[in-house]
TrEMBL record:
Residues 44-219 form the Exonuclease domain. One of its GO terms (biological process) is DNA replication. This is DNA polymerase III subunit epsilon. The gene is dnaQ. GO terms for cellular component: cytosol. InterPro entries: DnaQ, Ribonucl_H, RNaseH-like_sf, RNaseH_sf. DNA polymerase III contains a core (composed of alpha, epsilon and theta chains) that associates with a tau subunit. This core dimerizes to form the POLIII' complex. PolIII' associates with the gamma complex (composed of gamma, delta, delta', psi and chi chains) and with the beta chain to form the complete DNA polymerase III complex.
Amino acid sequence: MKVSDPCGCFPTGRHYPGIAHLVKIRAVGVAAEMDASAPWIDHPIAFIDVETTGRDPQNDRIIELGIVIGRGGVLQDPPFNWLIHPGRPIPPESSAIHGITDADVEGKPSFAEVAGEIVGALRSAIPAAYNASFDRAFVLAELERAGVRPSDPPPAMRREVDWIDPLTFAREVYKSEESRALGDMAARLGISLENAHRAKDDAAAALQVLYALARDPRVPRPYGSLIQEQRRLSRQQNEARKLWRRPS
């Protein structure tokens, strides 16, 4: 959606009273069909989590995908969850994390076979994930391999739409804490996470973490403002990590 530019200035920088309402800009990174000025918490949010055979989206595969839909601070029932056959053995080191083995995915559909259902579940909702760059890279890579290119793709499939990532805000709001991993954040906020590293359980807990963070005044309420602040914090955090890694 378009949002008002509060400046009311021409390129010279001179202010012209009374024209601010005529000057429009598009909020970068938002889903165009969503009102960028409305509270993001009132929009439908599709919280996504994937479990995989490894960490490389170009070579590894999704073996479980969960989507939990929330709106108005409430999780909608039922959640979506797919066990997916990756077409290759699951490495033991990956099974040690999520507990999913070759036997669990035996006879399960391939990603291509359930891609239509996944796209349908994501339609008309703002995409979100905890440490979103990981889940987003895997989802988009699998959809590309499956040749899924709908004429009207959901926001999660559009590269110009940012996914909401509560980890970015957790790093800011709880910067003094040693860990902002999902399990630690859930425990800190009193959110139940009984089956950690399983897709729909992680997605549900992460969505509740996002809603809990919304109570902090440092987390903007308008959807467009949230995305712009997330972009700012992400740049800031990435620069800080570069400094940490710089050799002495």
